[in-house]
Specification:
This protein has about 475 residues and is α/β, with parallel strands linked by helices. Helices cover about 35% and strands about 15% of the residues. The strands form 3 sheets. Strands 5-11-12-10-9-6-7-8 form an 8-stranded mixed β-sheet, with helices on both faces. Strands 1-2 form a two-stranded antiparallel ribbon.
Length: about 475
């Protein structure tokens, strides 16, 4: 029978009262608590050659083979297994933000860029450069900060990684304030929230503001969340464990009850998630709000327009005008990321691409080539990866950065194109691909009635993914909201 792997001589001793099985993959002992009188936890009892309990057999869980369960307790386990299908909340509507599927544009398997001939690659780059003509390739700098982060930014205890994230969060917060979105009576929806750090700093900045709500959207469970720090505060934090693709904001109880304007925010929202979030905010949510009975909104506006001294109302025309101008989305501030993870089906800028004579084939090559903008720094990337591996058990390490996924998770390694392009040329082409994809998003927002723009919100030495997308409804746009 198999036994527990022998730990290396330098390994620490197992924690007292915990399982003594050495997990080679994690280079440490298991931290599960075994039953009384046992040395191994239930997961490792049989595989470790440890004591069997009345010859009971452990089998793989049919819902998730990553863990095992006693065969005679399978039925009981399936009722409480974390991998079981849970009841869907009311705000779950299948594929509501997915976009329309064009059956005529279903792609066959796309040939990797590295497999293209020299002529094919040159033609693709020509199309890219022609499509990019007239685009403003020099974005405005909006690198800002905010007093809420002054102390932590000057705390010498923070390492380089923490400092990098804090500078980005400070600039995003500063841009939220620049657009007059940082105020009371708001519901901030943080897409791809992770630990919820961005919402945390927005809350700190607002301090005693009334009626401030936070919806933290994240499709996976997250460790070391910061939500608990706000349990006794004035703000309300709620986590929504759901894929943005299926999120219907108009069915969120707090939005139904309070009728507060929504501010969509996000720090490094990966590829396709950005498109899903934009469609959720500016297409699905307003449409569903109109479909729903809007009488409570009219009532709120009526109450707000009453004269405090003589309880008289403003004229009907003015009240109607206010109601028409009320927008369910007050603004959007999203730091973009990982364009190589975009998907044509969900992309909001299809019409923009089509007006340029481009389609799904070109888009899929451009989104792959976009990773060239961030993967030209191989040595730095590998060094950073090594550092992150060493720090992965450090609870204070904020691994919400996606700068290097273009190198690690795409098959379009620029080194697979020897002699065709220089490193600098590849990086410039990657940037053009990102800009073109983002320009499609800008046009989409403009068509939906928003003033939208792209700007640099941090230095490229802080983050290679340093572009911020902002949007405001046209009737409330500020002079700084366009580039």
């Amino acid at each position: 029978m198999a036994t527990s792997p022998r730990p290396p001589a330098a390994a620490k001793l197992p924690i007292e009262g915990r399982c003594i099985y050495f997990v080679e993959r994690k280079n440490r002992f298991c931290r599960m608590v075994p039953a009384a009188g046992r040395r191994f936890c239930g997961e490792h009892a049989s595989g470790a050659g440890a004591e069997e309990e009345n010859n009971r057999k452990r089998i793989f869980c049919p819902l998730d083979p990553k863990h095992t369960v006693y065969e005679d307790q399978l039925e009981k386990h399936l009722k409480k297994c974390n991998s079981r299908e849970k009841p869907k909340p009311d705000y779950f509507i299948q594929d509501i933000n997915a976009g329309l599927t064009d059956e005529t544009e279903i792609l066959d398997e796309v040939v990797p860029v590295s497999s293209l001939s020299k002529e094919q690659l040159e033609n693709l780059i020509k199309k890219l450069r022609k499509a990019s003509e007239g685009l403003n390739c020099t974005l405005k700098d909006q690198i800002m900060s905010h007093p809420a982060l002054h102390d932590v930014l000057n705390d010498p205890k923070n390492g380089d990684s923490a400092f990098k994230h804090l500078k980005q969060q400070a600039s995003i917060l500063g841009n939220i304030e620049r657009l007059n979105l940082l105020g009371p009576r708001r519901c901030f929806v943080e897409f791809g929230a992770g630990r919820g750090k961005l919402s945390h700093w927005v809350d700190i900045a607002l301090q005693e503001a009334e009626k401030v709500y936070f919806l933290l959207v994240e499709r996976v469970t997250t460790r070391f969340k910061v939500d608990g720090k706000h349990k006794n505060g004035n703000s309300v934090f709620e986590r929504l464990q759901i894929d943005i693709q299926h999120l219907c904001l108009s069915k969120i109880p707090v939005l139904i009850k309070e009728k507060l304007p929504v501010v969509g925010i996000g720090k490094h929202l990966c590829g396709v998630a950005t498109d899903l979030a934009l469609r959720c905010l500016v297409e699905t949510y307003p449409t569903k709000c109109k479909e729903r009975n809007e009488e409570p909104v009219a009532k709120r506006i009526k109450n707000d327009t009453m004269d405090a001294e003589n309880d008289t109302l403003v004229n009907e025309g003015s009240k109607k005008n206010e109601l028409e101008q009320w927008s369910p989305v007050a603004g959007i501030v999203i730091a973009l990321c990982c364009h190589h993870k975009c998907d044509w089906r969900h992309y909001v800028g299809k019409e923009f691409f089509k007006t340029l004579g481009l389609g799904s084939v070109e888009f899929n090559y451009f989104q792959r080539m976009s990773s060239w903008a961030t993967c030209g720094m191989r040595e730095t990337i590998l060094e950073t990866s090594k550092i992150n591996i060493k720090k992965r058990d450090d609870q204070t390490n904020d691994n919400e950065e996606h700068d290097h996924e273009g190198y690690r998770k795409t098959d379009e390694n620029p080194e697979d194109l020897p002699g065709l392009l220089t490193v600098e040329e590849r990086k410039n082409i990657g940037r053009l691909c990102k800009l073109l994809i983002d320009q499609g998003r800008i046009q989409y927002l403009q068509q939906k009635g928003y003033d939208a723009s792209l700007q640099y919100y941090t230095d490229s030495l802080v983050s290679l993914e340093n572009v911020l997308l902002t949007a405001l409804p046209k009737q409330s746009s500020t002079p700084d909201s366009t580039t």
